[in-house]
Specification:
alpha+beta, flat
């Protein structure tokens, strides 16, 4: 662990170990800082920008520092960054670490203060975002989600949505966001439990509507308020 302290010179392995520890440390800091601090950047993107910018600045401004150590460090960090992206594409657990689940901030016209604390935003920020979407009244909002990128997605109640030709002659129905029940070949048992359903019900519905489709073929499957199943395959 001597590479933690000041050294006159470091070998290649010690430079690489410093890069790994620095990368993990910044990941932890970014996670603690929360989504609001990350804003438009993802956790991995913010970490790579901060680390590489800081590493490259020192040897470029100090003639007493060589480029070898900085280049090794940046190379290791780049590999870790690409590995993180690859793992997030392959594993839903890793993806949840880097891309948190959206927080509902408003449901049926009511502010969820606990989730606002999780997202680390104030009522003033929430109201500002609503005004940007030309929504002046919280009670008109059916659902507002705090997205991982720092933006707020707003869905108005049916009676306040813009009028379209298909609206005429059609009774208004309460807004319902379709529930994701299958994602990347895996059944979401939490969503099924919220609906009061189980895996047997889902598979029966799947095979009744899509006879030749297997669970392993499904990229995404959603169910709306009328229990209509919509699927998206890996190879359409």
């Amino acid at each position: 662990m001597e590479f933690f302290s000041s050294q006159e010179s470091l070998n290649t392995i010690e430079w690489a170990l410093r890069a790994v520890i620095g990368f993990v440390f910044f990941l932890i800091l970014a996670k603690i800082m929360g989504q609001r601090s990350i804003s438009q950047f993802g956790i991995l993107d913010m970490v790579i920008i901060l680390l590489i910018g800081n590493i490259m600045a020192h040897p470029l401004s100090d003639e007493g520092l060589g480029l070898k150590g900085s280049m090794i460090t940046m190379g290791v960090i780049l590999v870790l960054y690409l590995l993180g992206i690859l793992l997030s594409l392959r594993s839903s657990k890793v993806r949840k670490l880097f891309i948190p689940t959206p927080y509902p901030l408003i449901e049926n016209g009511k502010i969820l203060s606990k989730n606002m604390n999780k997202a680390r935003i104030s009522v003033d920020v929430l109201m500002s975002e609503l005004r940007k979407k030309k929504t002046e009244d919280i009670e008109k909002v059916a659902l507002a989600l705090w997205e991982p990128g720092g933006q707020i997605s707003i869905f108005l109640k049916s009676e306040y949505q813009p009028i379209t030709p298909s609206t005429f002659g059609t009774p208004l129905k309460p807004f319902q966001l379709p529930k994701t029940v299958i994602k990347e070949r895996k059944v979401d048992y939490v969503k099924l439990h919220e609906m009061g359903k189980d895996e047997v019900w889902l598979l029966n519905k799947l095979f009744a509507n899509y006879k030749d489709v297997k669970l392993t073929d499904i990229l995404l499957a959603t169910i709306d308020e009328n229990e209509n199943l919509t699927i998206f395959l890996y190879h359409s």
